[in-house]
Write a structure and sequence with these properties.
The complex is a heterodimer of chains A (410) and B (404). Chain A has 410 residues and is α/β, with parallel strands linked by helices. Chain A is built from 16 helices and 13 strands. In chain B, α1 runs parallel beside α3, α2 packs across α3 and α15 runs antiparallel to α18. Classes of the chains: A alpha/beta (410), B alpha/beta (404).
């Protein structure tokens, strides 16, 4: 089958996230399909090194990538776009091309990207989250092929009860126009049904998997810190709950004075988070590492004793799988997508700082708990359901059903 | 010659722990979740104990001495029945008074003491025997350890406590080519009889009764009676959780009607019901050897359900390390709390062998995961350690005065 996919650039620079998920899916699909991947790509950035082709030996020959000049990145907010835009434009000849704001840039990207629908033969169109929905809808108009919408998160997951109405409208258009929808968890499927009144029958759930083995999982990475390490790895935004992480750290330190905490990531909450850590007397305990890239992600995971995800909303939570693959136990929100399928993890309600601290203290105090979680977690992830092939196969099943339905909306 | 039927039911409910965080250590908070334990007990009483006792009583009266069964009731379930559902305790007493029920010995706390500490094991068995005698006027003569845990080295100990026979799992590795449908004796102590569970026929009722994918479904009482009548050997030993009736197998599955018809059908087939103590008088078919601890739990039929992973072993070890000080403290509350923590269920909840046997481990399990079970238990033991320390500091330790 030929797939025209509007997705995101690899290699993924960050842990988890949309690009990692897309890369996993593409790798899984390529064993049986041809994929044309159209991605936004800032022209001034030409560093493509690090794309790992070794582990997929040749399958990338079935992949055609087309880059559309655009400063769009998966988790960009409207204000962040306006902040980034002047920088992205500096010294480039594209200056006049980029949209004035996020919405107009998404629109412009859709116009340019969808043109590939006429150039490349395809059986199905696949898009990944709202910034690419419009491109998919326009491509569908051009080729008449069915549109499969992959939803990784909704605006309600990212922004809680203050969603951007413009983004919501665009999400609804994409979800409504889709032939079929793939959500990465049951929890997200319920969210889509509840928030956008989409028929549940139109939505399939495909939980993400992860590459069975990578050299990064085995990096030798001793911790540079004098004590057990608790790691937060993700965007420092409301959605990921970094504030809960710092409050938890305060509680843990009372019981495990040597404990060290790393916040790896950046985002709009960073200044207030640093302030709060200092106010709590944790200046020497909480270390802000900034956003990690590539191998650094795995080094941090390998060095940590436990990875904590206190996310307010976590439609899936791929970082949990990366953590376990690195041999590091993780704590995940009870309501996350990954918690639906993963047994060997600590699970808490994201707001329950006390319980989070209780569990982390126990894990730091009892090596048995750390080792059992680590060993059982690795064993669990060796199941095919956590690999790349099974999710890809489920995705192909959805493609086939979409093709059978034709280009019409189900 | 048709075999006899030996029916035995286990009745036990633990004192489950309440949520106990590291922040609760040293605050004087109770360990046990009184409300939840009461709720669960009342639910099981409603769905199982009451209707099942009523049915058995009816069958006993109807059969005029033909129908008989054996029970083992743990000390901790009897305590809970006495406070939360006294009528159920009375109905057990009524059943025993009918003469149709034999009560078996076990550890008061339904613990793993036999695997860890001989002194504690004997103490818990003695206390249980005393309780049974006090409540039912019967001194147990047949022994049944927690979940049928048994190994050769326990035989002399069990014999010394005055028991005539032990119920054991009819595990393949002990029986080899032999049938479970006979009375055997301990290789380590000839004369102490062993009654192996026929797990195949027991599990037909206990596990498979309502399983639609099973070739035997739906299991009819006359078919089951026929299977037993056609079985080789002298006696078929059916050992089950009492909660099978109404709880593991809901009443909608027809389990109660099945029991009623089965007892009637057994009479028609001229199958006799016998007590374990009757079997203990019979000639042994030969010795059976259990070099390592065997139980009726999970597919492994060993002790890995309770002490198979590092969490369970660490928790159990930490608990028993406290025993000398707990006993020496002479503090009745400390001793009681410690003993209730020795109940096997706490360790069962920490089992990480999810995928094969996970379902069984979920019955009345108060935790979302084995890790939560471990964390809570370790916090509670830490609190207990603190109380022991405080006791020593405050001179509650009887020898503290002498030392000081």
């Amino acid at each position: 089958m030929n797939v025209l996919m509007f997705g995101w650039e690899f290699p993924p620079y960050k842990a988890g996230g949309l690009a990692t998920a897309t890369l996993g899916l593409v790798k899984g699909l390529l064993r049986r399909n041809e994929v044309t991947l159209v991605v936004p790509f800032p022209v001034e950035q030409n560093d493509l090194a690090g794309l790992d082709l070794r582990s997929t030996s040749g399958v990338f020959q079935q992949l055609t990538t087309r880059r559309v000049a655009s400063p769009l990145t998966p988790y960009m907010s409207a204000s962040a776009y306006e902040f980034e835009r002047p920088q992205a434009l500096t010294g480039t000849r594209m200056a006049t091309l980029y949209g004035e704001n996020l919405a107009s840039e998404v629109e412009r990207f859709a116009q340019v990207a969808s043109a590939f629908a006429a150039e490349f033969a395809h059986d199905v169109i696949d898009v990944h989250d709202w910034m690419t929905y419009k491109a998919g809808l326009l491509a569908q108009k051009i080729s008449g092929r069915p549109l499969v919408v992959h939803v990784h998160a909704t605006e309600f997951d990212r922004s809680g009860d203050n969603p951007n109405p413009e983004i919501c409208r665009r999400e609804w258009e994409g979800l409504n126009g889709a032939t079929l929808i793939i959500a990465n968890s049951n929890q997200l499927k319920r969210q889509v049904v509840r928030r956008y009144h989409i028929s549940a029958e139109k939505i399939d759930v495909v939980h993400w998997g992860i590459e069975a083995d990578r050299t990064e999982y085995h990096l030798d990475s001793p911790s540079p810190l004098p004590g057990p390490v608790v790691l937060f790895l993700g965007r420092v935004t409301r959605q990921k709950g970094p504030d809960y992480f710092v409050e938890m750290a305060r509680r843990v330190v009372d019981y495990v004075p040597r404990a060290q905490f790393i916040v790896a990531g950046s985002g709009d909450m960073l200044p207030q988070l640093i302030e709060r850590a200092v106010a709590l007397g944790l200046a020497e305990r909480v270390h802000f590492a900034g956003p990690l890239q590539g191998e650094e992600v795995y080094r941090a995971l390998r060095a940590a004793d436990v990875c904590v995800m206190p996310s307010v909303s976590e439609p899936f939570g791929l970082v949990a799988l990366e953590s376990i693959k690195s041999g590091t136990p993780c704590l995940v929100p009870r309501e996350s997508g990954v918690a639906e399928v993963l047994q060997n993890a600590l699970k808490v309600d994201f707001w329950d700082v006390e319980e989070m601290a209780n569990k982390i203290v126990s894990l730091l105090e009892h090596a048995e708990l750390h080792d059992e979680l680590s060993e059982r977690g690795l064993a669990e992830l060796s199941s095919p359901r956590f690999g790349l092939d099974e999710p890809a196969q489920h995705t192909m099943d959805v493609y086939e059903r979409a093709v059978a339905l034709g280009g019409t909306t189900a | 010659m048709k075999p006899d039927i030996c029916l035995y039911f286990q009745v036990h409910q633990p004192y489950r722990l309440r949520r106990f965080r590291v922040f609760d250590v040293g605050t004087g908070k109770d360990y046990f979740d009184e409300r939840r334990n009461r709720e669960i007990l009342c639910k099981v009483a409603e769905k199982c104990y009451r209707p099942a006792n009523q049915l058995l009583l009816k069958l006993v009266q109807r059969s005029q001495g033909h129908f008989r069964v054996a029970f083992s009731l743990s000390g901790v379930v009897l305590e809970q029945l006495a406070t939360a559902a006294p009528d159920v305790l009375y109905s057990f007493q009524e059943l025993v008074a009918s003469g149709a029920v034999e009560l078996l010995g076990e550890t008061y706390e339904h613990s793993l003491a036999s695997l860890t500490n001989t002194e504690e094991f004997v103490a818990q068995v003695e206390r249980h025997s005393l309780l049974i005698q006090r409540l039912f006027g019967q001194r147990p003569r047949i022994f049944r350890n927690t979940e049928l845990i048994y190994s050769d080295d326990l035989a002399p100990l069990i014999d010394r406590m005055g028991f005539k026979a032990v119920l054991v799992e009819g595990a393949q590795r002990a029986l080899d080519w032999r049938s479970p449908n006979h009375v055997y004796e301990a290789v380590s102590l000839p004369g102490l009889k062993l009654l192996p569970r026929n797990y195949s026929l027991s599990d037909d009722v206990g596990f498979r009764f309502s399983e639609r994918s099973w070739s035997g479904w739906p299991l009819k009482a006359d078919t089951f009676a026929r299977w037993i009548a056609d079985s080789p050997g002298q006696s078929v030993h059916l050992f089950l959780d009492y909660e099978t009736f109404g709880e593991h197998q809901w009443k909608e599955t027809g389990i109660f009607e099945f029991v009623e018809h089965f007892v009637a059908q057994a009479a028609r087939e001229r199958l006799a019901f016998v007590h374990p103590s009757t079997l203990a008088l019979r000639q042994a078919q030969g010795p059976l050897s259990f070099p390592t601890p065997t139980s009726w739990a999970d597919v492994e039929r060993d002790t890995s359900a309770w002490l198979g992973n590092r969490l369970q072993r660490a928790a159990h070890k930490r608990l028993y390390r406290l025993r000398p000080q707990i006993i020496a403290s002479g503090d009745a509350q400390l001793v009681q709390d410690w003993r209730r923590l020795s109940t096997s269920d706490h360790f069962y909840y920490m089992c990480t062998k999810w995928f094969a046997d996970g379902d069984v481990h979920k019955y009345f399990n108060p935790y979302d995961s084995p890790y939560d079970a471990f964390i809570t238990f370790m916090n509670v033991v830490q609190d207990l350690e603190g109380r022991v320390e405080d006791g020593v500091m405050n001179g509650a330790h009887p020898e503290a005065h002498l030392v000081g």
